[in-house]
Amino acid sequence: MSFPKPYADFVARLRVLFGFVMAAAFLWFSAPDGVSLAVGLPVSFAGLALRAWAAGHLEKDRELAHSGPYAHLRNPLYLGTLTVAMGLAIASRRWELALLFAAVFGLVYLPAVELEEQHLRTLFPGFGEYARRVPRLVPRLEGGKGAGKPFKWPLYRFNREYEALVGWIAGVAVLVWKVVRAA
């Protein structure tokens, strides 16, 4: 799927705003119970872990990432974000939130992926070969070239991925509070 560049530029600038809208909808509409938390939170944590793993291999605009999860898919941060959102939607017990998260991912995040990949093509001459070898969002399971490069905590911190962890903890706290309050 390809999005017109003016549209992609426009929605890429609004990603943070859409994030706040989704967070507000999540806070307002979620209706979790113990079972939904038990199913959804591990899914969302898996997405958070994927994001963390990716952040520890990402040197933005300095080196083309091709180690860790980048050996298996080109956009592990986006897949991690989608997985976190799916897990939180499951935990919230609201299909409407799942639909909202899916729509925002499709209409906002996928165009951002295209823009970022265009940027990487201009920045790194080897991106085209990497893109032919490594899928965009659906990971290949076999090992890839560069898969053994180590995770680096300084990159995790530099990429400020701890902010996603803090946001996830806040979301979990809201869900748990709603379950306790309803009991």
Domain tally = 1
CATH first level: which class? Answer: Mainly Alpha
Rg on CA atoms, Å = 17 Å
Total beta strand runs: 0
The helix content is 55-70%
Give a brief description.
The protein has 183 residues and is mainly alpha-helical.
Key attributes of the depicted protein:
single chain, 183 residues, mainly alpha, Four Helix Bundle (Hemerythrin (Met), subunit A), 69% helix
Question: Care to describe what's here?
Answer:
With 183 residues, the chain is an all-alpha fold. It is 69% helix and 0% strand. It is built from 8 helices and no strands. The protein has helices spanning 5-13, 15-29, 34-55, 76-92, 95-123, 127-133, 153-158, 162-182.
Strands, helices and their partners?
Elements lengths: L4 H9 L1 H15 L4 H22 L20 H17 L2 H29 L3 H7 L19 H6 L3 H21 L1
